[in-house]
Prior knowledge:
By secondary structure, this protein is mainly alpha-helical.
Amino acid sequence: FSARALREIGATHARARESLIAELAAGLKRFKGLNDLTFNDGTPLADPQTASWLAQEVLAAAAASGGDKAATNNGATDGEAEARALAAGGKVPEAIALLHARSLSAPGGRARLMARLSLAQLCAGSGQLPLARAIYEELDREIISHGIDSWEPQLAARCLEGLLTATRPPPKAPEVIAAAWSARYARLSLLDPSASLRIGPAS
C-alpha cells in the first residue's frame, strides 16, 4: 500500500518509493523464503496480488541491481572505483567529497551504511585517520542501535574491524580507553574470529 501510494503521488516521491522497494528487497534477500511463508493451514501469508508484486517489482529490481554491482570493478561500484582512482592520483579531498555525496543519495538505510563504510575505508587508507575514526564510530553506534550484529554479522564485523584498526590504543593508553577497545575486540571475536586474528589483541 505504501509503494502504491508513493507511486500515485507522482515523480516528487519517486526516490522515496525506490528506497522503500530497496529496503524490502534487502530484507527478503537476508531472510530467504520470507515471501513464501504460510499460515498453519497452508494459506500463503502473501495474497496472489502481493506475491506477484514482490516477484515482478521487488525481487526483479534486487536481481538487476545485484547484477549491475557485480559487473563493476570486482564488486566495487562505479563511484567507489572513481573515488579510489582520485585518491591514488593525490586528489583525496575530491575522492572524499564523491563518496560523501554518494552516501547522501544512497537509496535506503543499508545502502547508506555501505556507502559510509566505503568512505571510512578510503579515509583510513589515505591517511585521514581522525575523519575515518569519526565515521567508524558513528557507524558502530548505528549498528548497535539497529541490532545489525544479529541479522548481518559480516557487515557489522567489517565496520568493527575498521574501527578497531583506526582506534588501536598505544601501549601506555589510559585504562578506560584500553578497556573500551578490548571490549570491542571481544565483540569482533564473536562476529568474525578471522578478523580479530588479523588485528590481534591490544599490546
